[in-house]
Amino acid sequence: MADKTNMPYTSAVLMELQRKANILPFNVMHKTLADTEVANLPIPANTTVLAQISTVLDDPEAFPHPERFNPDRFLNADGKTFNATAVDHLVPFSLGKRQCAGESLARMELFLILVALMQRYTFSVPKGGQLPDMTPVYGGTQFPQPYQCKITLRH
Hints:
Layout: H1 8-20, E1 26-31, E2 36-38, E3 41-43, E4 48-52, H2 53-57, H3 84-89, H4 103-120, E5 121-124, E6 137-138, E7 142-143, E8 150-153
Antiparallel strand pairs: 1-4, 2-3, 5-8, 6-7
């Protein structure tokens, strides 16, 4: 983990992976305690509210061309420091009191796993194959369309 500060692009790739392939596109359910209003829409007390995290993660004002996979969006022009606007809008673990308690552990584990995989293997499209369809499949979670990937051990 000591090298993480010297690997901003790797961190940016992880951020973009979490933005584009967030496993849980919805937040936990909340209930309004009193009559309230959001974006000029009245919400009565005792209404169950479900925040859709993917709406934030696909916001074109925070992430221009959100349909594209672009890790550079999280880096400033110097390639070494992070774009505060993009980082602030990256909320795959939710926000507030009910955000994921294991966020810091998960971020560390994701970084370690990605680096270990990239060091040990090469990933490619198999001969005669094609790039995967990036349209997510929704259920209780979000997951990718079926695809084929060739994984080769590095020497």
